[in-house]
Amino acid sequence: MRVKFIFVHVLLFALIASGCTNNTTSLNNSGNSGETTNPNGQQGKTDDSTEKPDQNDQSLLDYFLPDGSKAQFKGEGNEFAALDIDFAHPYENYVIVHENNGGALIRRIYKIDKDQITKMEEIPVDLHEDFPSQQEIEAMEPLGVYLKKPFEIGTTFDSWEIVETDVTVDTPYQKFEHAFVIEEKGDDFVNRKYFVEGFGEVKRESIMKTVDDEEDYVVTSTLESVTKPE
């Protein structure tokens, strides 16, 4: 039972939805063409702004990449930690994310409200499966809260809590300032997600506590590259 927690963000549905591979995800209606920003190229940079943004005044839509964007995450600690993620905004106040971890293609649908983001769906899908209609999404039973304001230490939602703010996060893509961290804890595991305004998740971290004084088992997915439409 303990193993499922450490892999909660990378192994979900990994043994189902056969036919997915490590190839770059290509979806008919998520839009992937455009400018690629690579951390090893000239466009990679450090977000070294000295002024801390007021995240509570920002639209929660700013915690996803723009419509048609793609993000790749470097994985460490497990073969399913490397992620290829597509972002689509097909309807007002809804974001559809397709995440390929090499074992499965997972579709997640989010509803954007003023003070929280609600997860409406999380299922494995085929590569060329069409988006559900807005009417179909509105009829879905919400699965839970993905993110909630205020972005202050102590804010809780579902099994998560904001535990740090104004954090610096180093990623292969760039160094981010003013991130905040949400955390989910159990008796023998800790899951963390790092959020930055304008990007959303830039790092995921799962830590499994071990026995007999062995080192903790750590799995991370960290932002490596971003492609945005022209």
Describe what you observe in this structure:
A hairpin with a 6-residue loop joins strand 2 and strand 3. The N terminus is likely disordered. The chain has two helices and 13 strands. By secondary structure, the protein is mostly beta strands. It has one domain: Beta Barrel (YmcC-like fold). Strands 1, 2, 3, 4, 5, 6, 7, 8, 9, 10, 11, 12 and 13 form a 13-stranded antiparallel sheet that branches.
Instruction: Give helix % range.
Output: under 10%
Q: What coarse outline follows from CA principal-axis ratios?
A: globular
Can you count the beta strands?
Answer: 13
Number of helices: 2
CATH architecture tag: Beta Barrel
Supply the helix-strand structural class.
mainly beta
H and E order? HEEEEEEHEEEEEEE
What is the CATH first-level class name?
Mainly Beta
Question: How many structural domains can be distinguished in the coordinates?
Answer: 1
CATH topology: YmcC-like fold
Could you tell me the strand content as a percent range? 35-45%
Gyration radius (Cα, Å) is 17 Å
Report low-confidence residues grouped into runs of 5 or more.
Answer: 1-26, 30-50
**Termini gap:** 45 Å
Major beta sheet summary? 13 strands, antiparallel
Average pLDDT, rounded to a whole number, is 82
